Amino acid sequence: MFLSSSADIVIYGGAAGGGKSVALLLEPLRHVTSVPGFGAVIFRRTNPQIKNEGGLWDTSKNFYAHFGATPNITDIRWDFPPHGNSVKFSHLEHETDIQSWDGSQIALIEFDELQHFTKRMFVSLMARNRSTCGVQPYIRASCNPKPGSWILELIGWWIDEAGYAIKERSGIVRWFVTVSEAFVMADSKEELLERFPNLMPKSFTFIHSDIFDNKILLE
After folding, report:
1. Which of 21, 29, 77, 149 fits a 20 to 30 Å CA distance from 160?
2. β-bridge mates for residue 109, sequence order
3. Is the whole model's pTM more than 0.90, yes or no?
4. What angle do CA 87, 37, 117 make, to 5 degrees?
5. Positive or negative, the Cα torsion across 127, 133, 139, 141?
6. Residues 6+ apart with CB under 8 A from 202
């Protein structure tokens, strides 16, 4: 469901073991070897979280080398043939780190464990989600939503009062606009365009990640 969604922004959420990080690593492979100029950046909050034993960088070796990609350990990046496109891993430990991405154009932005980032980081990086490579810019993220987290402003419709995902709503697409860094949600794009004619709504969905879908890990 996560890999097949066409929504502008998809958050894949749940406790550990549901395959969230692997799903994020697989997503760039859709375009990175075939679309000239395509690039992706996968963010974690801190640099050690990227390089920890069994973390994103280690796990990426299980996939990207099979596509002829070359690792650049210094820049924490994989370079893919035949167009020289890259999948880069980076961190946003401090809010001032956002400034280093000013002027960037990133076709695919991914956040691993979005609950560790601030709302300002997420909203600011949305403005960098742009590209002229021909791929409609999009965002993917994983999270383990916590009570009181800003993420609930986005995914609250998919979560019940006890804090658990409403499975029947998993994957249903809604729409939102950002007004003064507040998320305004609606069931349709047209509803938001009527209320905010000068803003372009983005499609959004939340998909529930469940360890019981991961049969190999359970074994």
Report:
1. 21
2. 41, 139
3. yes
4. 40
5. negative
6. 8, 9, 175, 176, 177
Say if CB 217 and CB 22 are below 8 A apart: no
Alpha carbon 148 to its chain's center = 20
Number of residues assigned to the chain: 219
pLDDT in tens, 86-110: 999 999 999 999 999 999 999 999 9
Locus of tokens 């403005």: 127
pLDDT at 169 over 90: yes
Check: CB of residue 192 under 8 Å from CB of residue 8: no
Q: Which residue has the tokens 């209320």?
A: 195
Task: Kindly indicate the confidence band of residue 142, based on its pLDDT and cuts at 50, 70 and 90.
Answer: very high
Count CA atoms within 13 Å of residue 6 on its CB side.
1
**Residue 108 contacts residue 31 (beta carbons within 8 Å):** yes
Could you tell me which residues are beta bridge partners of residue 155? Answer: none
pLDDT for position 161:
87
The one-character DSSP state at 35 is S
- Phi, psi (5° rounding) for residue 39? -145, 150
- Residue 16: pLDDT above 80? no
d(CA 125, CA 103): 11
**Which residue type is seen at 62?**
N
Q: Which residue do the tokens 């070897």 mark?
A: 33
